[in-house]
Amino acid sequence: MLEKKIRRYKLMDAHRELVKQGKLLEAKQLLKLLRNGKISLGLGDADWAVEKLCEDAGCHISYSGRYYTATAYL
Q1: Most buried of the four, 5, 18, 44, 57, by CB within 10 Å?
Q2: Distance (Å, whole) CA 10 – CA 14
Q3: pLDDT tens-digit profile of 23-74?
Q4: Distance CA 24, CA 22 (A)
C-alpha cells in the first residue's frame, strides 16, 4: 500500500515537471494513468516517454501479443 502511494507521488511530480517543460501530450497521458489506474500506450514518441517514466517509477507494464501496445498499471 505504501509503495503504491510513493509511486503515485513520483508520477505526480513527473506530471508537474512535464507541464513546466511544455510537454503537454505526455502530461495528459500521465494524468489519465493517475486518474484511472491503468493506461494503454502505443508506438508514438509521447507514449514511449510515458512508458519510460512509468518504468522508472516502478509501475507494472504488460505488452500485447505483437508488442504494438503496452498497458501500464499504477
Answers
A1: 18
A2: 6
A3: 999 999 999 999 999 999 999 999 999 999 999 999 999 999 888 999 999 9
A4: 6
Contacts of 8 (CB under 8 A, 6+ apart): 34, 74
* Residue partners of 33: CB distance under 8 A and separation at least 6: 11, 39, 50, 54, 59, 72, 74
Q: Cβ–Cβ contacts within 10 Å for residue 24, how many?
A: 11
pTM, whole model, 2 decimals? 0.90
C-alpha distance from residue 67 to each of 41, 44, 70, 71, 74 (Å): 10, 13, 7, 10, 20
Range 44-70 burial, b when 16+ CB lie within 10 A, else e: eebbebbbebbeebebeeeeeeeeeeb
